[in-house]
Design brief:
The chain is an alpha+beta fold. The protein is built from 3 helices and 4 strands; from the N terminus they run βαββααβ. The chain has a 4-stranded antiparallel sheet. The radius of gyration is 15 Å and the shape is globular.
């Protein structure tokens, strides 16, 4: 998740994300979470997460631990400073046992 944050919002945003990072083990399927800050004039952050299953990230958004950070998603999106990118890592020549995909 990429966030554009104002000067005034930055300290609170970082504090809420740090709390999320400190307690990420409570999120089902979350294997890692890291916050990066861009070296730009604008205040921009990347919240990079890794999940066991595709659907785990969407299920986590409704948890009380994540809700404070999601408020910044809505705020940043309204100002044109938010977007998401989802990537899937796959190993070639292995069976895909991901239960999120349909099988023939």
């Amino acid at each position: 998740m990429y966030f554009g944050v104002s000067d005034a919002d930055e300290p609170v945003f970082v504090a809420k994300v740090r709390r999320l990072i400190d307690h990420h083990a409570q999120l089902r399927g979350c294997t890692s979470i890291t916050l990066f800050k861009a070296n730009t004039k604008e205040i921009e952050y990347l919240l990079l997460t890794s999940w066991e299953k595709k659907l785990d990230v969407f299920a986590s958004r409704h948890m009380p631990l994540v809700t404070p950070v999601m408020a910044y998603m809505d705020r940043a999106a309204a100002a044109g400073g938010y977007h998401e990118a989802i990537y899937t890592a796959v190993a070639p020549n292995t069976d895909n046992d991901d239960d999120d995909e349909e099988k023939d």
